[in-house]
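REVIEWER CHECKLIST
Item 1: Sequence provided? yes
Item 2: Single chain? yes
Item 3: Sequence as submitted:
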Amino acid sequence: MLESLINRITIDPEICNGKPTIRGKRITVQTILEFLSAGDTSEDVLYQYPSLEKEDISACLQFAVLLMSKSYTIRPLTTLNHAA
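Item 4: Structure as written out by the authors:
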């Protein structure tokens, strides 16, 4: 699973502000996930983005699963005291 992600999902600070993209294209993983969560099918996404492959869509879903498998800690934000 990890090998397919490395080949398909790229993170480059020079592309889309460092957001994860598909194979260095200016198509973010977030964009694809938003289409899918809105009810679009993989075929719909591939029609909108003909440069993508079905494996790219699968990699986006695998990437999301990988992120959700991590443990997260919520910490309160500290407020800054501004002197007037």
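Item 5: Key structural point noted by reviewer: The mean pLDDT is 91.
Item 6: Recommendation: ____
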